[in-house]
Amino acid sequence: MNTFDLTPPTDAQRRELSAGLSGDERRVLLEHGTEAAFCGVFLDNKKDGVYTCRLCALPLFRSNAKFDSGTGWPSFFEPFDVAHIRTIRDASYGMVRTEIVCARCGSHLGHVFPDGPPPTGDRHCLNSVSLGFTEKGQPLPDVLHRGGAEAAPAE
């Protein structure tokens, strides 16, 4: 059972959260851009914790699902909870791919490909600027002030 509130942010909350984004974060999260390969802050992160949506802070991936895909972007074989991401058919740039977005706020995260490791065979390829990170044992960010699971320590 999902204990996180997946209700989208209000328009006022979205404006407030968007105002704090850098130009690169805005381009990727809100305009479906992509950061350059091999430069993201989380590519080589080996800490234990939870990766969250940079905009709304919904937990997206656990560090124990992260693997080195060699692609230049942080990659994960399974999400924190399948309800926390949505997939969208992306036919941009002459390719057909599966885009992944935050299920709560709709921010662009990256793409998922069927070439990952067991047990899922999936490679969720993410932009570092789409993510936040909370070390294990630290409280998850509660940027929407919802309390409950939102402010619990990262597992």
TrEMBL record:
Keywords: Metal-binding, Oxidoreductase, Zinc. GO terms for cellular component: cytoplasm. GO terms for biological process: protein repair; response to oxidative stress. Its EC number is 1.8.4.12. Residues 14-136 form the MsrB domain. Its cofactor is Zn(2+). Pfam families: SelR. GO terms for molecular function: metal ion binding; peptide-methionine (R)-S-oxide reductase activity. It catalyses: L-methionyl-[protein] + [thioredoxin]-disulfide + H2O = L-methionyl-(R)-S-oxide-[protein] + [thioredoxin]-dithiol. It is an enzyme of class 1 (oxidoreductase). The keyword Oxidoreductase applies. It comes from the Bacteria. Belongs to the MsrB Met sulfoxide reductase family. This is Peptide methionine sulfoxide reductase MsrB. It comes from Pseudolysobacter antarcticus. The lineage of its organism: Bacteria, Pseudomonadati, Pseudomonadota, Gammaproteobacteria, Lysobacterales.
